[in-house]
Write a structure and sequence with these properties.
The complex is a heterodimer of chains A (about 350) and B (about 775). With about 350 residues, chain A is an alpha/beta fold. Chain A contains 7 helices and 16 strands. Chain A has helices at about 20-45, 60-70, 245-260, 280-290, 305-310, 315-325, 330-345; strands spanning about 1-5, 45-50, 75-80, 105, 110-115, 120-125, 150-155, 175-180, 185, 195, 210-220, 220-230, 235-240, 265-275, 290-295, 300. The longest helix of chain A has 22 residues, at about 20-45. Chain A is elongated, with a radius of gyration of 26 Å. Among the domains of chain B are: about 1-125 and about 755-778, P-loop containing nucleotide triphosphate hydrolases (Rossmann fold, 3-Layer(aba) Sandwich), CATH 3.40.50.300; about 220-250 and about 565-610; about 320-395. Chain B is of the alpha/beta class and about 775 residues long. In chain B, strands 2-1-4-5-6-7 form a 6-stranded antiparallel sheet, covered by helices on one side. In chain B, about 65% of the residues lie in helices and about 10% in strands. The relative contact order of chain B is 0.13. At the A-B interface, helix 6 and helix 7 of A face helix 6, helix 7, helix 8, helix 21 and helix 22 of B.
Chain lengths: ~350, ~775
Amino acid sequence: MIFFHTADVHLGAKPDSGRPWSLEREKALWNTFSKITQDAGRSAKLLLIAGDLFHRPPLRSELNEVCGLFEDIPHTHVVIIAGNHDFIGPGSLYQSWKWPDNVTMLSTPELSSVYLEDINTEVHGLSYLQPEITSSLLDDAAAPHDGRRHILLAHCGDANHIPFRPEKAVDAGFDYIAMGHIHQPKRYKGIPAAMCGSPEPLDRTDMGERGYVIGDLTDSGCSIRWVPSATAQYTSLTLKVSSETTTTQLLNHIRAYQEKNPSYICRLKLIGLRRPDILFDLDMLLDGARITDINDSTVPDLDIAQLSYEHKNDIIGHFIKQLQMTDISEEKRKKAMEYGLRALMEDFN
Amino acid sequence: MKINRLHINSFGCLENVSLSFCSGFHLIDGPNESGKSTLHAFMRAMLFGLDKGRTRMAKDSGYSRYLPWNGNPAYGGSLEIEDDGITYSIYRNFDANRSTCRIFNETEHVEIDYPDAFLRGLLSGLTQQLFDDTLSVSQLTAAAGKPLTDELRNHIVNLRTSGASGIDVNAAITKLKQQKRELRSSFSRAASADAEELDRQIISLQRLAASSAIPSDMKELESQKKELEKLVRQYAQRQKELANEREKDQIFLERHQIGSEEQIDLVLKETDQIYDTLNKAEAQAERLSRQQTESKKTHLPDIRKLRKAHKKNYGRGDSADERQDDGKRPDKDQAQYIPPILLFIAGAFLFIFAFLVLSHENHSLLMAALLLIGGFTCMVSCCLHFLRSSDKKKHFNIDLDELYAHGITKKLLGEDEYDDADTYRDPDRRRNDDMGQASDRRRNDDMSQASDRPRNDDMVRASDRPRNDDMVRASDRPRNDDIGRASDWPRNADMQKGSAVRTNDGIYKDADMQVRLSAQRLDEMYRRFCPDGDEDATVPRLNAIADTMEACRACLIRLQNSGDAYGIKADADSLIENQQKLADVNDRLERSNKIAWQAERHNEELRGLLDRRDALEETLERNKRITDDMSAIDLAVNILNELSSTSFGSLGYYLDQRTSQIAEELTDGRCTDITVGADLEITIRQDSRLIPLSQASRGTTEQIWLALRLASIEFIWPDTDMPLFLDDAMITYDDERMTSTLRWLSDNYPGQVFIFTCHHRERKILNALSVPYRHVKM
């Protein structure tokens, strides 16, 4: 029995809000999910959604949209649970929503299940009714020996969201444990369990590829494979500067890099020595390329130690010494040093 | 630093002047306008250049003031100084078009690159302003101003421990503050304010959303609603059906023109009567038919005799033995027309022959005439023959049956009813009489029946109401083939009377007509009371009518039943009950929907706020960067301020101490406790009183300011012997103060002292003090 496993779709989210590509990313979440459901309709009997289908408790329009997708795959069962983002709160439409016939939502806070007779499969799961669950509600979950296939659908993984380790559930009798919550995909060796990850990255912390899981439940067991589905990827780009490097040069380099990798959205880190009187225009870089944030770790091309020695008897030396003795963060010290020295030495040279 | 010599090319009133100097005191005296101050200015100008001035006061600038009086373009000169064992020669040309500055290292015989920067370094950052405020004391300008403070601050901070010169801390701090202002201007206060406001609204709305939960029973209510709506529809439909049932019954009764059970009984009774009559008539007709058949066989010869008698009396007529088996008249009727036709043809031929003869050339008139006469005769005969035959037909075209009937009747009954020749000869007349009687009778019967018909307008439609006249006419209207002649025959009543005028054949015909009439009547009743019945159906009409009447009776019973025969009331009660339940469920559902709608609105609003909040993140991040940078700048500024204030703080203390000391010595102990404020406000403590310097005498003030300058010089150049210039600086001193001042300078001041004066007191005192000096007479 072929099944699809996805989670953390976060429909309705606006990745990189305020940036020029934000709308494109928002649409990509919907488009990718739509493609997954269509593929599931063509080849799978079961589509599992392990929580956080929506970024927030859904609006009516969003639910209608999703129901439309599910109605287009009437021969595929869909089983959903609510996660910590789209939890079933007092104002959630999940409470009163009428799903299409092929869709089941396991909406109770305690473990419940639905038996899908035509595929002899029982899916177990529970939903979030608040943003956090610190109890280990799944540790005692077990599947009965009744000749059915049993799947556990779980949105879990860290201390504040149902702490659960699938290694402990090896003997629980589940043919597969479909997990969600962590956006980074992960497969558990030797255990029929997987964290499928989000089908699209949501923000700059979602580095790397993203996708979903396709599985096959047979009498001999469960086999799964991970399928990439994301249309964009957050990557880290580190550029080393020199004393000749200018902001424009940096921007041109970044643009060339992104032309070769059009799906990349970069987190930029600058390292190296730059001219002491130059500060890179970070806003220009942010506005000129698909860059989410910049870590400017460059330092002015000054030998502080040498400078301190040479100016040990004047204000510059005293300034360096005083700043080095001040109890502040390294980042602030670096900035203050740069600003102070640049101001003191501008006329000095 | 020591000034060794100078040469003035042309500077003010001085031209081509060379002077050399040594260590110690230099007394430059001369009368007014001798160039003392000009010399002083030249020395300053050689060290710092001349300010050409770009303002309205340019004419008062040093450049203009010291333009060579003789217009010598060699506006400038040279100055040789010695510092740290190295001799430097400074050459300057102040001319605006040829302004130059060149410095030569005389010791190493090299020209110095970047002479201005070198000079600044050589002078340890000594600016002209600082020079004027410290080393150059002019007449009545001993008091130092604000610039001294900043200059002192800078120099002290930077040179306190003989550090690097040329660092303007104040400028650095100012620059940092400017950068901070620029950063602040790009800081989005609105974003921060918006974010705070949004956070507040989000929290508030989250609380509100939490309190307005979507009711949990909505699904169940929806389900109940659907069930109840279905029930209500079913009951309503049933109500309609039941109402239709009743209406159907009403229509059924109307259609069948029944308004009461009495009417039903009447119809059934009449139907029975008709059926009886029909049965009897049919039986009689059958019996008579058999009799008739037998009679025919028996009396056929008599009929033939009778026909012959008729022929004899009335001419040619139909003979019974001439009737064909199919009852049609024999060809004899048509045969009588053959002679006249032959006559006509013969006549036509004769006429044609006559014309042929006439047309021949050699025609015979006699022949033609004979032919014409013959043809004419044939035509006339033909016409006469036709006339005579129709006459006979009228009288002799009698039906065999009629003839038979006449004969049989006469034979059987023995009464000669046909002696009335007129009646016999005019059968039409008899027919009409009988028709009249029969029609009257029928009319009366039907009228009586019509009076029984229900006149209930609700029950009987006008279109269905029998039209008495039509019914009567229709029923009595003779059928051409049978009834037409049959109407001549006596009616049942007449038959029952046993009237002698009825022959057996006539009775048969009456019975037959009765059957037909009864059947017709039955058909009429069938059509009336079974309007939907099939005309061609073989179902007995009586049964059909009876069934219909029973159906009408059942309808009547149902309609007249005071109870709920149709079940409408019971159903209506159920309908109302379920409608009430549905209304309750709808109310609850509406309330729940309202709450759900509100919760949904809150949710949507919250979503909008969260999205707006997210959109501000980038700006907030930028703000954070700016804030961090501003904080770093503040830190740098604070450290610089701290460093400089620490230095200046110590300067303040030093200045207090040293100035007091010097002032005490200069004033011979009269001023001992001097306090120098941050802005160089000097206060004198005298006999436990703090007296602002401004309240002291002019001389005291000048002395104390001099003391301050001297203390500052010591602080700024602790290791360098800088030349001191006193240009009529002691003009307000009395001899005593002058003496003490000169004494102190002689004892304490390590550097060169240039005294410019137009008086002689200084020379006297120096002589008195045995202070060696070089006298320069201007």
